[in-house]
Amino acid sequence: MTAEKNIEQRLNELAQVIGADESLVENVMNRIDAAPIAQAEQKFKNKFFVRRFIMNRFTKLAAAAVIIIAAIFSVTIFDKTMPMAYALEQTIQASHSVRYLHTKNYESGHDEPKEFWVEFDEYGDVKHVRMDFPEWAGEGDGAKLIVWKENKVDIWFKRKKSLIRMPDRTVADNMLQMMEMFDPKGVLERLRDQNLDGLVKIEIDQPSNKSKPIVVTATSLPGNTVLPGKRGVVFIDQSTKLVTHIEHYQLKDEEYEYDGTIEFYDYNQRIDPKMFSLDEAPSDLMKIDYTTQEVGLIQGNLTDKEIAVKVVREFYEALIVKDYAKAGQIYSGVPVAKMQERWQDINVLRIVSLSEPIPHPYPGVGGFQVHCEIEIEKDGAKSILKPYGPGVRPVHGQSHRWNIHGGVR
Question: Which one of 21, 192, 229, 385 has the lowest number of neighbouring Cβ atoms within 10 Å?
Fold first, then answer.
């Protein structure tokens, strides 16, 4: 099928969906033949449309794309007796004006949500973030609070009673990528893009009762390898055109099962600057600052498994000679005094064995476990210590360095 025939077929399908008469197809196809490129580009100055337009090598098909986009997302309805139709662009534009946002992320099987507070700058980019992860979402770390501000990340591990500061831009980038998943502006822009690329089917239900929400249902189509079997249902307030919540579903055994809900609160209600700090954390927490020290060991030319074994070996060798500074450096940068306090009741005598590294049992943790046997002396009696772990992985934001993060006793 030629590109022009494909466009004509899609227009026929569109006309059936929106209830337009057959003249729509003829009208648009005539406009495709006649529309000057400059006019099309001038009409759609939105950077998304212009970018897609410029990248297209075939000018006639580029004009077709612009015209079809106009038909799909236009706020004009062809039946003049019907009210103005809703378009995704309305909510995307409304979301660009948002400076403050509070979200709750509920996942199937858990009552307590992940909670996020976000401040955006004047360009719509994330400026400050606060994340509250309950116990179930801690990926082995337990409950934790995270604040991202000025390219620094502070993490309060509640169960571990520790506070870590990380300066690396990589960590910040990971934080921002996570936030994009919960930014309603970004969610709808991705849906729009995937719809244009034929990866999702979008259905819009706009009730005549303005007190009820607009419901946008996006379903992954066969061939969508990015989000296979996914369905998202977006609920939009008719008066503000802002997203109130999004429900997620996953296709299982030919049925869509509920996966979770993201709820959006407090649009543009100023967030207290204190929320973007961890001043409420207890003063007696163990504080580790990655901005003032090098943590872990350099990997160099070693393989991942080789550096994992080396990290564990040098950690216990440091304890044998009571070099608590080096042991603390290897163990996530733990301060000397805290490392000495943890090991003062045990004499580490020798390393009996180190096993082949195996992937950590919690995929979200990453890295390896290096099971080992260590001969120790406690209260005058010798024994073999078989710790859970130790867990070894790259230092956060410094993938060329590896450290121990737990499981040493």
Answer: 21
Quick one: which of 292, 25, 64, 287 has its CA closest to 156? Answer: 287
Structure tokens, 90: 């309305």
pLDDT in tens, 225-257: 878 999 999 999 988 888 899 999 999 998 999
Helix 47-55 / helix 184-196 crossing angle, nearest 10 deg: 30
pLDDT at 62: 36
Pairwise CA distance, residues 256 & 245, whole Å:
18
CATH of the domain at 396: 3.10.450
For 183, other C-beta atoms within 10 Å of its C-beta total 23
Is the same domain home to 381 and 391?
yes
Same domain, 186 and 200: yes
Which long-range CB contacts under 8 A does 345-348 form with residues at least 24 apart? 345/378, 346/376, 346/377, 346/378, 346/385, 347/376, 347/377, 347/378, 348/316, 348/319, 348/320, 348/374, 348/375, 348/376
Pairing of strands 100-107, 114-120: antiparallel
Q: Is 236 left (phi over 0), alpha (psi -120 to 50) or beta?
A: beta
pLDDT < 50 stretches in the chain: 14-15, 17-21, 24, 35-84
Does residue 224 contact residue 83 with C-beta atoms inside 8 Å?
no
If asked whether residues 220 and 248 sit together in one domain, one would say yes
The first and second tokens of residue 298, run together, are: 């350099």
